Amino acid sequence: MKKRFGRMKICSCAVVALLLLCGLGAWAQGQAGSAAATTTPATTTPAMDVPLDVKAANPPSTEDLAKGDPEGTKTGTVNDIVVSDTKKGLTLADVVNQVGQNRIGINFTWTLICGFLVMFMQAGFAIVETGLCRAKNANHTMMMNFMVYGFGLFAFWVCGFAIQMGGGAPYSTLGGASSLNSEHVISFLGKNWGVFGTHGFFLSGATYDVGVMVMFLFQMVFMDTALTIVTGSCAERWKYIAFAVSSVFMGALTYPLFANWAWGGGWLSQLGSNFGLGHGYADFAGSGVVHSVGGVTALALAMIIGPRIGKYNRNGTPNAMPGHDIVIVLTGCFILAFGWFGFNPGSTLGASGNGALRISSIAVNTMLAGCTGSFGAILYMWMRYGKPDASMSGNGLLAGLVAITAPSGFVNSVSSAIIGLIAGVLVCVSVELVERKLKIDDPVGAISVHGANGIWGVISVGLFADGASNYGGSWNGVNGSVRGLFYGDPGQLVAQLIGVGTLIGFVFSLSYVAGWIMDVIIGQRVSAADELEGLDIPEMGALCYPEFVLKPEMVTRAVEATSQIKSGFRIAQETA
Amino acid sequence: MRIVGILLALAGWLIPLVGLTVTQSLTARFVLVVLGIGISLIGILGVLNKAHLKNAIWKG
Q1: What is the pTM of this model?
Q2: How many domains does the structure of chain A reveal?
Q3: What is the ipTM of this complex?
Q4: Of the candidates B41, B52, B56, which has its C-beta nearest A504's C-beta?
């Protein structure tokens, strides 16, 4: 027993001694640290212009580099940093400037490449719309989609960009683009309302700036997406000259005006700071700005132009007018889904800093919503009509993508899946409503895909935004991250609904009045004879498929098959 | 009728804007904006579209 107590005493002493030693060590380190801390400012303030000893970085010699670098370990070293004064050599100022330029360079590259992807979406829209139209109008439909790019770009360069972004600076991810700093503000009901920008016409003057150019390219391709939506709803009966004038007007005024209110520092974006409504109208990549603007303009023009000959019977029941090529329709949908990875993740306007690494989350959200959108549509059609409809599956994919565009930067993956699924069902219901109840002829379903689902996307921000995103600490000048109703901020939902009200009330009215005036002056619709012949020869002067002969019995069978599905819908309605 | 439809659509847009300055209550603002959207939709889909359908090409 004594021996055991003796051992225990020795052990205890050893533990206590060890603890004391550790404590002493820690105290000594603390003292050294605090001493260093007190002396740091005096001794280690970096001199920015003193040459650095680059030998410590062990740069490869010229001889080493001449041998080649198959491992990739000698390329991209201290040798590659740009030196401002070669006599002096590399300084800390050079390194710091290089870091800043690298960040902006990453953001420029990211935003430009995403813009290129969005530009390629024009090809997707072109073949989706052409495939959903009849072969006799293919050249005309294709040419509208082709030239909308040029008409829109020209109008946007002349004045659209200035109206939209001319007062929204600074854009920190792109180095500021500080020359876009003049917003026209009006005083109304005791508050200041930003209405349109005034810098950047023709990209001249101080807006001849590298950051502004990146912003222009990215915003231009977004604007063009909105314009191309309208060509779908008015296809097969729209005068080409009316289309051209309408596109220029939309690219110059309708789109830029709403985009300014939402993205360019205008009054919708200030609903948070001016009226305490969440973070103001929040539309990450443009469900409202791009798709709803396109969708409600499509609705206005489709109403003015009226339905195609043969679309409705005298009793008002619709006839099916099947598209001529489902292969290019679905290929186009894939191209659009691919381009959407530029649309949504690119809207961070950067991949470095300000929470931009959220691009991964945004890309996954985009992918998920598109997937569940097509899933919702195919399920709806299968259950309701007994067949998985191909064109509606494609529209379901697009509907999911349209709906996730606004919330993609603010929501999590589960919410994305829900938003997409609802969009997939919504597009089917909306197509039926537009065609059967409202009797508005929309050959490609553009009003439902972009208008209805764009609005759903805007509302879903106000419901599902989870407060986990943080793009530089604030959004629309309000600190913190965007939260929807389900995450504790009902004010955000009200801000979103005001955006919806503006789209329906203002954007529709502006588009309708402009379209009406154009109808009176130049006429919107082709003659009945031209329409029956097909617009390829009368409007464009050439057939799209000159050696392509349609077999009448195949057309009849296709119409019958589609009519059976439609009659199934009628029976379902009557039973209900 | 077309003009009435457009005026209704615009009125529906202006109601919540005026409401923003008239009241601070979130519920009241919510009600006003939903009311405004409803009025705009009635103007567009009810009045304006009906005016177009009156002379629709398929009725001739």
Answers
A1: 0.87
A2: 1
A3: 0.97
A4: B41
